């Protein structure tokens, strides 16, 4: 039988079979056929309504969406936002795949979660321009213009000192701007990049001054140098620290060295030299100024090289001496000093006028004598002995006590300056301090006491004024 006649025979057989069916059977077949014709499209629609896509970024599932556009639209929006923010091309290099799946509406990933996933898993890269120092990338900015502006602002931040003019300004290191592809989160604006280059760090540690602290104790605590603390806090006076005051512990170490060559006309002093003359008038180890020295003056035209504002070298181009220096002449003692023990006799401790005697006055006992003299007048040991006190003591002010042995001690009070320490052995006539006005005092003078076995005795029995 020819193949082309096979369908016609099947059709005739079906029609013949259908005609032999009862009327009721024919009705049932018609109902079933109609039901099938209606059900198939409905089932197809329902099936298609559950179709979804599993979204993967580099093989990692980030969500389930009904349509691919549900995810891609978020990507496009974020790319657009980044482009508007940085005004540069935005790309990403991750592999995004969509795998067909079936999911009910409640199983789909909501838009907020999808956006969070995009931010977490997508590495958007932008066309950027990096600043390189000696081949190392230190900062990335959105545009070439921004990178150039940072370097220009860096140069402008170093202004010449008064009376100076910058002849040349340049980078000490090799500095270049290079086009790069970078993650948007790593880009810096001009202000951030400038600060990073100037400070050399993005972390600033702060210390709060506590009771009794000084720059020395703070430097020791943090293993720093005092000079570095001073440089890091130029606005802080180390001698006037206040409780709870905050100071920086980071020493600015710029990532780029700005070198400047300046020319300046400066007035400078010429230090005087010191000449020594030997004299038998003074004991060995003692000195006295015979002629006061005086600095000279000169005006110079200098070429000064600075790195980040700090002078590193100076070359004098012209010099004009305005006043020559006057040398200082110092007498140097050659006489052998007496033994550094008590001799049993006392000499006058200083030059001056007797203004108050030993004994009762104004209702209280004066336990020594007062000798008026100018502030700075030398005070000498009345006899040889050992210094047993050197410091400040109540109404005495700055006080020196010398033990001469044999039960004798002498007191020297109200000093402006003390030049000996506890434990020092001194000889008779050796300078120990200078007249002052410290403690309870009505004017510059030396309060001098002689004590025998701890009891004050009249000094005028031992010295003459």
Automatic annotation (TrEMBL):
Q: Kindly indicate whether the keyword Transmembrane helix belongs to this entry.
A: yes
Q: Where is the G5 domain?
A: 256-336
Transmembrane intervals: 29-47
Where do the LysM domain residues begin and end?
Answer: 205-249
- Write down the SMART domains for this protein, in alphabetical order: G5 (SM01208), LysM (SM00257)
> What's the superkingdom here?
Bacteria
Give the originating organism.
Geosporobacter subterraneus DSM 17957
Instruction: Report keywords, A-Z.
Output: Hydrolase, Membrane, Signal, Transmembrane, Transmembrane helix
**One Pfam family named in its UniProt record:** G5
Where is coiled-coil annotated? none
Spell out the protein name for this chain: Murein DD-endopeptidase MepM and murein hydrolase activator NlpD, contain LysM domain
One Gene Ontology molecular-function label: metalloendopeptidase activity
């Amino acid at each position: 039988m020819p193949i082309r006649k096979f369908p016609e025979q099947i059709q005739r057989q079906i029609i013949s079979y259908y005609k032999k069916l009862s009327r009721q059977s024919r009705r049932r077949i018609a109902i079933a056929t109609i039901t099938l014709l209606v059900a198939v499209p409905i089932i197809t629609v329902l099936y298609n309504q559950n179709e979804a896509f599993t979204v993967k970024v580099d093989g990692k599932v980030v969500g389930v969406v009904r349509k691919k556009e549900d995810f891609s639209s978020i990507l496009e929006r974020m790319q657009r936002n980044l482009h508007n923010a940085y005004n540069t091309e935005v790309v990403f290099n991750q592999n995004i795949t969509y795998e067909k799946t079936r999911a009910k509406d409640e199983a789909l990933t909501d838009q907020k979660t999808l956006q969070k996933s995009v931010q977490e898993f997508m590495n958007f890269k932008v066309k950027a321009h990096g600043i390189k120092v000696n081949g190392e990338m230190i900062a990335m900015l959105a545009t070439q213009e921004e990178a150039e502006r940072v370097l220009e602002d860096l140069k402008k931040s170093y202004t010449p000192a008064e009376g100076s003019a910058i002849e040349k300004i340049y980078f000490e290191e090799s500095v270049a701007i290079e086009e790069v592809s970078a993650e948007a989160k790593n880009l810096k604006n001009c202000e951030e990049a400038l600060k990073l280059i100037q400070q050399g760090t993005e972390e600033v540690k702060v210390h709060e001054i506590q009771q009794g602290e000084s720059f020395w104790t703070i430097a020791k605590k943090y293993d720093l140098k005092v000079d570095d603390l001073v440089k890091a806090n130029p606005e802080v006076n180390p001698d006037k620290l206040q409780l709870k005051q905050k100071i920086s512990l980071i020493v600015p170490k710029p990532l780029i060295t700005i070198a400047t060559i300046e020319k300046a006309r400066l007035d400078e002093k010429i230090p005087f030299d010191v000449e020594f003359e030997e004299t038998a008038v003074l004991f060995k180890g003692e000195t006295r100024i015979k002629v006061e020295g005086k600095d000279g003056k000169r005006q110079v035209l200098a070429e000064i090289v600075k790195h980040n504002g700090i002078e590193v070298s100076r070359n004098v181009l012209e010099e004009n001496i305005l006043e020559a220096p006057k040398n200082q002449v110092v007498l140097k003692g050659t006489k052998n000093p007496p033994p550094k023990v008590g001799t049993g006799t006392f000499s006058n401790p200083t030059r001056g006028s007797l203004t108050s005697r030993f004994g009762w006055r104004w209702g209280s006992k004066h336990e020594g004598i007062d000798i008026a003299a100018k502030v700075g007048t030398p005070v000498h040991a009345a006899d040889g002995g050992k210094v047993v006190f050197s410091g400040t003591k109540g109404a005495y002010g700055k006080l020196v006590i010398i033990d001469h042995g044999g039960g004798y001690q002498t007191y020297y009070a109200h000093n402006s300056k003390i030049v000996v320490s506890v434990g020092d052995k001194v000889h008779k006539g050796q300078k120990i301090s200078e007249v002052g006005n410290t403690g309870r005092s009505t004017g510059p003078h030396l309060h001098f006491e002689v004590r025998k076995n701890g009891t004050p005795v009249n000094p005028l029995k031992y010295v003459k004024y």
